[in-house]
């Protein structure tokens, strides 16, 4: 049976890298804060922490986290997105790979934080989400954090309908041995309430 493509590839045909980078550059030029994710993660980290940016895209967050003093590895399956990351930060570690097979990359595990920002989880290939969450959880050190940001309605997703629920996502996290620590409605830490269209979640792997 042919492998199912991720929803991002269905939307973009693997050609989105330059447009995606241009969109964020325009937002930054217009004075918007485009570093909310990195700033949020930094509040959770000690200086010099190890971060895995899972579904790093053009590397915009991983590059910022490196500027903030962390050691950041980026993994993405879209070569057009990764081409931008490699051009912008050639000395950083970038891997072209499927998060559903993260273990096959042979990365040194025990990351302090694994980030899946920008709707990575809703944009995975249908049916692979629990596998990916398990792979991300396995990359964490005991006590490490999985930080995710995802839209929960059409207004916050590049999809006509949300492909998952927050309860379903929490269930995959629980199955992967993670516990929910914090949840917000934005990267600026606005409180999350039922019915919010976006969720920033912090799950943790139990300390050893
Ligand atoms: C909307 S982009 C977000 C990129 C980046 N996290 C950001 O916030 O700018 C979603 C990314 O998820 C990646 N992605 C989706 N499924 C993936 C998979 N199975 N393995 C690796 N990356 C994946 C896509 O290639 C795409 O770059």
Automatic annotation (TrEMBL):
Record-linked SUPFAM superfamilies: S-adenosyl-L-methionine-dependent methyltransferases (SSF53335)
Any one biological process term the GO annotation gives: methylation
Domain Methyltransferase residues, every copy: 51-144
Annotated keywords: Methyltransferase, Transferase
TM region(s), chain numbering: none
Cross-referenced Gene3D superfamilies: Vaccinia Virus protein VP39 (3.40.50.150)
Molecular-function annotations in GO: polyprenyldihydroxybenzoate methyltransferase activity
Matching InterPro entries: Methyltransf_25, SAM-dependent_MTases_sf
Pfam families (alphabetical): Methyltransf_25
Protein name in UniProt: SAM-dependent methyltransferase
Species of origin: Streptomyces candidus
């Amino acid at each position: 049976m042919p492998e199912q493509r991720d929803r991002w590839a269905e939307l973009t045909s693997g050609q989105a890298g330059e447009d995606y980078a241009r969109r964020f550059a325009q937002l930054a030029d217009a004075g918007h804060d485009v570093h909310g994710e990195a700033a949020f993660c930094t509040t959770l980290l000690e200086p010099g922490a190890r971060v895995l940016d899972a579904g790093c895209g053009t590397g915009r967050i991983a590059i910022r986290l490196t500027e903030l003093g962390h050691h950041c590895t980026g993994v993405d399956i879209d070569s057009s997105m990764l081409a931008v990351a490699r051009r912008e930060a050639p000395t950083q570690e970038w891997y072209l790979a499927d998060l559903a097979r993260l273990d096959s990359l042979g990365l040194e595990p025990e990351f302090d934080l694994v980030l899946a920002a920008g709707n990575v989880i809703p944009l995975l290939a249908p049916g692979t989400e629990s596998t990916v969450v398990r792979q991300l959880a396995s990359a964490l050190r005991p006590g490490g954090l999985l930080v995710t940001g995802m839209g929960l309605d059409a207004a916050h997703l590049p999809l006509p309908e949300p492909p998952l629920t927050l309860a379903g996502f929490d269930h995959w996290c629980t199955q992967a041995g993670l516990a929910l620590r914090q949840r917000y409605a934005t990267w600026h830490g606005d409180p999350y309430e039922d019915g919010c269209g976006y969720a920033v979640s912090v799950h943790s792997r139990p300390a050893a």
